[in-house]
Amino acid sequence: MKMTKLAAVLAATLVAAPAVAQDLHFPMLNYRTGPFAPGGIPFADGYQDYLTLINQRDGGIGGLPIRTSECETAYNTERGVECYESIRGDNPLILQPLSTGITYQLIPRVTADGIPLHTMGYGRTSALEGETFPWVFNYPANYWDGASVAINYLLEQNEDSLEGKKIVLIYHNSAYGREPIPTLENLSERYGFELVEVPVDSPGQEQSSQWLQIRRERPDYVIMWGWGVMNAVAIQEAANIRFPMDHFIGIWWSGSENDVVPVGAGADGYTALTFHGVGRDYPVYEDIQTYVVDRGMAAGNGDQIGSAVYSRGLYAAMLAVEAARTAQELAGHAQITAAEMRTGMEHLSITEERLTELGLPNFSAPFDVSCQNHGGSGAAMMQQWDADTQTWSLITDWIQSDRELIGELATADAAAYAAENSITPGCL
Amino acid sequence: MLYREAGDFKTSYASDNQTFPIRFDRVAYWVVMAFAFLVLPMIMGDYWANSVVVPFLIYVIAALGLNILIGYTGLLSLGTAAFMAVGAYATFKLTTSFPGMPIYIVFLLSGLITSAVGVLFGLPSLKIKGFYLAVATLAAQFFLIWLFTRVGWFFNYSTTGQISMPERSMFGVLITGASASSTAVYFTCLIFVVGMAWLARNLTRGTVGRSWMAIRDMDIAAEIIGVNPLIAKLSAFAVSSFFVGVAGALTFAVYLGAAEAGEAFGINKSFLVLFMVIIGGLGSILGSFLGAAFLVVLPVILKLLLVDTLGWPADLARHLEVMIIGALIIIVLIAEPHGIAALWRTIKDKLRLWPFPH
Fold it and tell me: How much is the ipTM here?
């Protein structure tokens, strides 16, 4: 009890004075420490660098500067909740926790507090049902899209038939890794392939028994839902059992340089999904060099620029900025609130012209968000690793996911959530 | 001067046996209670309630439970987080199966269910002790978490294996769910902490506690003087698991709101509670409070100091925080191997004699 008193006294002294200046607060829930830092650092750098670019080049959004704040979650849900509590009173406009576990904690909280949550390519898939989850967005693609795109890609490779094939799903044994299972089970019934699920407990440094099992199963393809150190270990193990790398497909979170570089030549030909372009061949990188790097304002060590997950962080920041811009247009004033930001996100429209204007031509599939659909296009591409040049290259065009099936599954899951939490679905 | 027994005459058996024999302690106790119930809710903001005080109170319950097992009975357990998970999943199953059941009753029932599971995993303690028992409880940690992530019935077959707490109220006040006020959550935790600390204190002062301590000090001697080791050890497991189960139920229901066995109740959490008990002081109720404060409140204060006040980068502060906490653990254990509570005991003894050296 003594400590509580002390804590309260300290609390009184540490409470910061509220900011009076006009700005747009974009908090960052990063993880630059902990077992998942190799994935968290490039994302955080990309997110922060793009926001710095907007401040430096355009003077903010609609004339108002962006204010960022950083909170370290270490990919730990309790810390994530602590971070959320510390920023929620500070007019945050959009939250992007980059963790499915933290997302699940935050969904009821942001719904009660009215703060938009954008979980780009992760989080709760059924949140694409905007009427049940008005404050949660997961455009442009989600895990079920990922599973469906992977299967569609394999169908393409096998003359539209996966009959009698055996596909292994090796996954991070957490809410994140289990997300695609219902979709894959459904697709396995539809296309007649056999699905074998192989879980790996977090963090996944030791996988020899799993790969022994995979070797025994003799699968035609392996699909991976991994994150952090688990990816590199899995690719190494696959190389060790001489599994053909082009038959090994990772979700977008299993397709970064950190995952393949440690494996060396063995990783050559490994494929992964991606819902955005890769590499530095986009005009926006010149601006980042001029306005951010050359001015010494690059986030972190500045050594991640152009990597796959960096591009994703940049993409997330770009979508957030575009949503804020849309929100400002709809609201008619620059100092938007979280509720106006939500409206902006719901009316977000990403077109090819806009992408070109932003210096990101063909970086993302065009999509529109609506009240009913918070999930975007659901399209993704395949990228392949070239160990000689140490680069990812895109090997397909946009592959569309089976949105009809995903819609069905999402509606059922969202309805169950609405019933459990007595929510009446509807547009805000 | 402040802290002395002189003039405090005990005229009845009841007053001679009271929990706090020294007047200063009694006054301090009531002051702290008044502060916790009346002053703190007034001055505390949402942030402090939800992310510092509530986890602190919940970990106090868990540390009290583990202290009963390790500190009072001498049985080493590494399965604390798994027993917390039992409490959490019991709460989830009970409240989704019987939505009308009062939530406080659900918490207590979850504690009782955990108690039963704890007794089951406590059975090996009749044959083995020390490191061997630690390994047996480690098995509980792995087995229970495996069960909660693989068997769909426990998480109502949700696709991700996450359990989410629906909104529940007590006496017309919302206790769980995101809309619950921080005051309601705080009072819920406070009531459970006060009730359970009172229970722990009185259990350890009575026959049951004395039989636990007899077993801890020398089990063969205890058996010879008539302590039944079966009853003593299993009752310690039952009471300890009850506390830990309630802590797990509160962690899930009022603190986190959603949980997943492997992430929220992993082995790291078992070690965290174990460190609280060891740093706070084995066999001390006050030690459980101090240990929980050391490992829950201190990191947040460090974060506020380094990041929010001094403006250091969040990742650097986090690395430093790990180093500082680690260094402090080592310093505390070198300076006072019996925990912070023993440090307090020494101060108390000095104060009683002060200003005379003998």
Answer: 0.85
What is the Cα–Cα distance from A45 to A28, expressed in whole angstroms?
10
CB-nearest partner of A175 from B46, B162, B255: B162
Contact A11 B178 (CB under 8 A): no
Contact A234, A200 (CB under 8 A): yes
Q: The tokens 């399209």 sit on which residue? A: A379
DSSP A249: E
DSSP A59: S
Highest mean pLDDT among A257-261, A333-337, B61-65: B61-65
Nearest to B161 among A82, A107, A175 (CB): A175
End-to-end CA distance of chain A: 44
In contact, A312 and A120? CB cutoff 8 Å: yes
Please tell me which residue of chain A has the smallest CA distance to B344: A2
For B229, the token pair is 């080791």
Residue B132, min C-alpha distance to chain A (Å): 25
N residues, chain A: 428
Residue B315 touches chain A, beta carbons under 8 Å: yes
**Domains of chain A with bracketed CATH:** 22-142+281-377+409-420 (3.40.50.2300), 143-278+381-407 (3.40.50.2300)
Q: How far is B36 from chain A (nearest CA, A)?
A: 8
**Is B161 in CB contact (< 8 Å) with chain A?**
yes
Residue B78's closest CA among B219, B217, B269, B247? B269
Q: Which residue has the tokens 């679905």?
A: A425
Distance (Å, whole) CA A49 – CA A315: 11
A327-370: per-residue pLDDT in tens?
A: 999 999 999 999 999 999 999 999 999 999 999 998 999 999 99
Q: Give me the residue spans of the domains in chain B.
A: 44-265
Nearest Cα to A123, choosing from A99, A144, A96?
A: A99
pTM for the whole structure: 0.88
